[in-house]
Fold this sequence. Notes:
2 domains; 7-stranded mixed beta sheet; 10 helices; S-adenosylmethionine-dependent methyltransferase activity; cytoplasm; Ribosomal RNA large subunit methyltransferase M; rRNA_MeTrfase_M; methyltransferase
Amino acid sequence: MNKVVLYCRQGFEKECAAEITDKAAQLEVYGFARVKEHSAWVLFECYQDGDAEKLIKNLPFMSLIFARQMFITGELLKDLPPEDRITPVVATLTGQVDKGGDLRVEVADTNESKELMKFCRKFTVPLRGALRAAGVLSKVENNRRPVVHVFFIAPGCCYVGYSLSTNNSPFYMGIPRLKFPSDAPSRSTLKLEEAFHVFIPEDEWDERLANGMYAVDLGACPGGWTYQLVKRNMWVSSVDNGPMAQSLMDTGQVTWLREDGFRFRPNRNNISWMVCDMVEKPAKVTALMVQWLVNGWCRETIFNLKLPMKKRYEEVSQNLAFIRNALDEQGINATIQARQLYHDREEVTVHVRRWWAAVGGRRDER
Ligand SMILES: C[S@@+](CC[C@H](N)C(=O)[O-])C[C@H]1O[C@@H](n2cnc3c(N)ncnc32)[C@H](O)[C@@H]1O
């Protein structure tokens, strides 16, 4: 097995390919990314034996922006006989995976794959039984063992392989299934909820998304993101010329501020979260985020960078590097993560957590 399959948003295959090529090279893994536009997946073929394994082990999945999932695979299994598709899949995996903890029979996230998905659902149960009998899967699900992926790209045509449970997306097809809360003022609410799921370990939610925290939402109207913060019982200052949904105002937890998000300065120094969904040039949003972080105006931030049509990987990388350099220069230790979420469109979502600052908070610089 010397290839890696990556799932991505449809239309972002080139970005996903540019990213894996770049980040693999940083690990001295060289290869070739095969891209079919609008397929919603990319195949990275490593030149050297053992390199695909090196990638799935050593390239942190959380460092990937455009990939929703990453797993190691071998040659494409073609023309699986309709009367027995199971035997070749089991044969390919035998000896490659021992007592895997889970099976995911998947397709690319495109409209065209919807029919194939119905087949995948039916195929999963008998395949799981056969893989268990062969020892490829353990008898019971185990979330600490490798995940077996069977990825159908056409009827009778699939890649089979595995991802490591310590370095993959825990979600089927790399997509967290979230239910739209019917009382939320906008569908964007799911972006922030997904960001919480992706960037914040669930066992830290009670501590980091806690009751009574103070939060600022820049570009908040009509309030989908504010809704998520209110749901976690935070006090929210929502900044936007446009009004906030009455249902949010009625909670008494929201202060609506009709101000320019780029000029707004907080008047308290215990803000845990600043979130920002303003539609602006990425560099302008990035500069604002750096200002907040450097001045210690918030502890954590989640914001969106709306992407231009071209060179989107380069654009995101440059902005993330700008944040990293600016924080380093100020002696601020921070974790920076970015991901094109399932609910994101032409944008990526960034999370920065400020740990400590060697030079203090510099709260006076307003
Ligand atoms: C994509 S919408 C935000 C949607 C919101 N996150 C939600 O979940 O409902 C972008 C918002 O940013 C606001 N906006 C754009 N530029 C702004 C600025 N300079 N200051 C404040 N708000 C701004 C717009 O008025 C608009 O309401």
